[in-house]
Amino acid sequence: MEKPAQTDHEIAEILRRRWSPRAFANKPVEREKLLSILEAARWAASSSNEQPWSYIVATADQPAEFAKMVDCLVPGNQIWAKHAPVLMISVVKTIFSRNGTPNRVAMHDVGAASAQLTAEAMTLGLFVHQMGGIELGKIKIGFALPDNHEPVAALAVGYPGEVSMLPDEKLKEREMAARTRKPLMEFIFTGKFGQPRQ
Fold first, then answer.
1. Cα dihedral 160, 165, 171, 172 in deg (nearest 10)
2. 196 φ, ψ to 5°?
3. What CA–CA distance (Å, rounded) separates 113 from 84?
4. Which of 22, 51, 120, 190 lies deepest, with the highest CB count within 10 Å?
């Protein structure tokens, strides 16, 4: 299933086609493709080249590790994400390695890495659904996160599946719903915050 964005201005086709499905095909992600999307994350820009991101990865062919990661999702995400062939959790280091001071833009940087991962996935025929609905405590304890490291989001990765695969009607409706975004004038300002740029 494809849901290309109806943009007001031209953007790259790979970005227009990007969306976050919940239905994933019962097909494993090839190791080389998985490494390629992680390589794309590796080369994202970051403040002072800190690269504050990490990814914990589990694939469906590792049942114990995969089940552990599914258990770290909130129930509303578990019901569909457990069918994706790959699950990841992004983790951010909140201090700079060089001096131990807080890294104010660390969350921005891990977001940039995940965005590059997602774009690379699209070039390979894969889709990514990022999720904020995660169990922070379970992740910290279950995956033994070091001090100054925080879970950020979960990512489901795989080939797109059929809407009929989803377990309930609400999820099917959400999968089929039209994509929407705020107009540019609602978030592009000039002079002062809230003053739209003309």
1. 90
2. -60, 145
3. 21
4. 22
